[in-house]
Specification:
By secondary structure, the protein is of the alpha+beta class. 17% of the residues lie in helices and 38% in strands.
Length: 241
């Protein structure tokens, strides 16, 4: 029988094992989102991160990742594999600009979907969480990376609506909704990354922004360490249509 000192000494190792298992469970679901303006001769750009949901042929990302004014924009998802990177064609099924969400459909076989939180209640402050995505786009290579932090608070979202056409009374009311404030460093390429619990891999939200304390140009070299994520309940509403 293990004595109390042995159990206490093993606790950090047990926590690490839970995190390792959670990352291994979520990582195969994570993809990079690439957009191509078909009217211009420019290279594809990795705009952000997404992750598989539902039956594995649906990808959730941020609306601002796929929002493009070009009339002819092609979308692709990049899925890292043991043999390199697989590129799949994607199309936008529907969007929720108020909650900064978009749902894509991908061609080909399904990816392993994440396990979305089913409860409407938000997780409490202090919950240990991680994100997995593509920080700084493809600069660091097409390898999903994981950052760790905690839920620091639940705070009202007060971001401006992306288009003046959305400025009606209902949209203004809807624009004030609770979001997770995170004690976590995140970078522009992390937009759309799944936010999940470190202990069990349950996805509780989607990263959509970071607090910029100086200028956007310095967000990489001087990150604030404060990020925000949209709760999973809005993801479920988008999937349900």
């Amino acid at each position: 029988m293990l004595d109390r000192r042995t159990v206490i000494a093993a606790l950090p190792l047990l926590g690490a094992a839970g995190l390792i298992d959670s990352i291994a469970r979520v990582k195969p679901s994570v993809v990079g989102i690439t957009t191509v303006d078909m009217t211009r001769m420019v290279a594809p750009q990795l705009k952000g991160t997404g992750f598989a949901v539902g039956d594995g042929t649906r990808i959730v990302t941020n609306h601002h990742v796929v929002d493009n004014s070009a009339a002819q924009t092609a979308y692709f998802v990049l899925s890292p594999t043991a043999n390199g990177v697989t590129r799949r064609t994607a199309r936008v099924l529907r969007t929720d600009p108020v909650h900064d969400l978009a749902l894509l459909a991908i061609d080909g076989p399904p990816l392993p979907p994440v396990r979305l939180r089913e409860e409407a209640a938000l997780v409490p402050d202090g919950t240990e969480v991680v994100i997995t995505g593509f920080p700084i786009g493809a600069v660091l290579g097409l390898v999903p990376a994981t950052q760790r932090g905690i839920v620091a608070a639940t705070t009202p979202n007060q971001s401006a609506l992306p288009h003046s056409s959305l400025l009606d009374a209902a949209a203004i009311r809807a624009a004030r909704f609770p979001v997770y404030q995170l004690d976590m460093v995140a970078y522009p390429g992390n937009s759309g990354s799944p936010l999940y619990r470190s202990d069990n891999g349950e996805v509780i939200g989607i990263l959509n922004s970071g607090f910029v304390k100086t200028t956007k140009e310095r967000v990489i070299s001087d990150p604030s360490g404060v990020s925000f994520a949209i709760p999973a309940t809005y993801i479920r509403a988008l999937i349900a249509g």
